Every structure is written in structure tokens, then in C-alpha cells.
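Build the 3D complex.
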Amino acid sequence: MTPVEIKDRLVQVVGEPVEWQAGPADAAFVVAPEKWYAAALALRDLPELDFAFLRTLCGVDRPAANCIEVVAHLFSYKHKHAFVLKTRVGRQAPRLATVSSVWPAANWHERETYDLFGVSFDGHPDLRRLLLPEDWVGHPLCKDYQEPPSYQGIPMMRPARPAMETKG
Amino acid sequence: MELQFDRGPEGGFAVGTLDALINLGRKHSEWYLLFGTACCAIELMQTGGPRTDADRFGMVFRPTPRQADVMILAGTITYKMASRIRRLYDQMAEPKYVIAMGSCANVGGPFYDSYAVVKGGDLIVPVDVYLAGCPPRPEALLEGLMLIQQKMEREPFFAKASGKLPPPADPWPASARGGAV
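Done.
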């Protein structure tokens, strides 16, 4: 199916998208956050869509629009078609329903998105940081992240050394 | 003082300090910890492989820090990994040595601007030898291991073992770690 056909089928289940980003290869369907889970379930379970494979799930920080986008790239091995599902949550205390029960692969991807963007996934079985230490402060891929001077006594900059003298 | 050998027909003998004898043994049994944090570990494996063949100098890998003399920081060190590396270092028995292998372990390398990468292994453990390269070739790592051999050879072993020599300055003392290790 073409992305437009997939979109028309998805509209029958979750209604019109917040935004439809038409593109040559990676058209994206932006869904309201409260319909995120329903859209994911429909994309996986409708036999003519059959998106059994979650390629990736990640976040994008957009301070200008005051939102964090969560993006899921999907692929169907049965029908050989791909689709992008997006949603937008507020930058202050971002929350979203988990899709780790829809695609088990989303488990670690959501942990990563939580780790780096601070998106809290409701219903996630084990929402801990994935890449950074558990006592890390802040979410580094947010555009307003301020790097602390040190982490547990390790400086984040190399200490300054006296400049080497050059002869001649 | 180096050992002086007399290879006479009656079996011969050697004269020298006990330090020199022990250092001769240490030098030819330089066991390194089988441990890598990133891509430099591939070159570390090559160094132990048949082409470079570090075994011929008595350099063999040990999978436990309790039996290792040398820790090779092979690769990028993240803050999450820092406490694990420090724990391995603390588990090694004295005398122990550290080689910082490659740009990342030296100063953070190409990932210096990352929020997650430690800006050099010498901020966590005392480093004896720095190897340039990204990654250093196996020949370079072998050179680094041989520099450690030279250091072992010169060292007053008993003075060090009895605590008469001050230990190397600890860049990350327990008081600064905040319960990380």
C-alpha cells in the first residue's frame, strides 16, 4: 500500500491526523497523544496494514513549537511497506502511553527516549534510564540541557595545562 | 643493578640484587586484563593474536583483575562505565600499571563534546603509558606494553612493596566518588 492508502485506512480508525506530512518515501502521520496507543494498535493489527516490525522509536526536541515529538518508524514484512507515526507532547513534564505492549522492541527505545528527552511512558514495565547512569541529572538531548561541571567527582572538561613552550 | 651472569661450565651463576631478579620475572610475565570498552579492543585482540603474538614476551591476557598486572583502557569510556573501570582497577593487586590506548582513553578523543564520555582515562585511574592513535595499531600497543616492561625493570620492587615509595597520585579518590564505586 502507498502511504496515502495507509493514511486513509488509519483515518477510519483514529480520525483525521493533527498533521499529515506528505513525503516521497517517509510520509508521516501526526496523531494526537491520546490516540497514540490506538493508532499503534491499529497499524499492527489491521490485516491490510500489518506493521509487525517497529524499526525505531525516538524523540525530537522542538523548543520553538514547545513540544517533544515522539517518532515511530514502522515496516511490514508481509506487505513490504513502511510508515511513520508521530505525536507531539508538551515540553513541560512530557507524558505518553507506552507502546511496549504493542511492539516489545519499543521497551528499550522508550527507555532511551525517557533517558535522553525525559518523556515519561505511562504503563511501561521498567522505565529506567538506558544509556546514562541512573543518578544522572537532566535529559541531555533536550535543547536547553546544561552540562554540569562534573559527574561524581570526574570533571566534564579536561583540566587546563600550562601551554607548551616552543623553541626558536 | 642489573644481573651479571657467569655462564661457566659448572652451571654458571648470577650476581645482582634480588630486585633485579624479581623484576626479570615480572617483566617476562606481564599479564594484561582482558577488557575493552570500545573499538580499540579489536586492536587489543589483534595484539594477542598470532601476527603480533604478544605471548612470546610473556604477555598473556587474564580474565580476572586479581591476576592481572596491566590494565589496558581500550576504547571510549562513558560515565556509566567509569565506576566499573575503577572497580576493576581497585581489584587488581599491586604493583599494577595502566595503559591508555587511543585518543578516547587519552583525552576523550573525537567524542570530547559528548555529554556521556569521560575526557580521558587519567581522570579515573593513574595512567602510566599513553598511546596515540585512533585506534593504535597492534605494533603500537606492543610498544606500550614494552614501555611498561622497561618501567618494571627499573623499579625498586621491595621499596615499592614495603610502601617506602609514595603511590601514584589518585585522580579519583574514594572521597570524591560520591558512592559511585
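Helices of chain A lie at 3-14, 36-45, 106-117.
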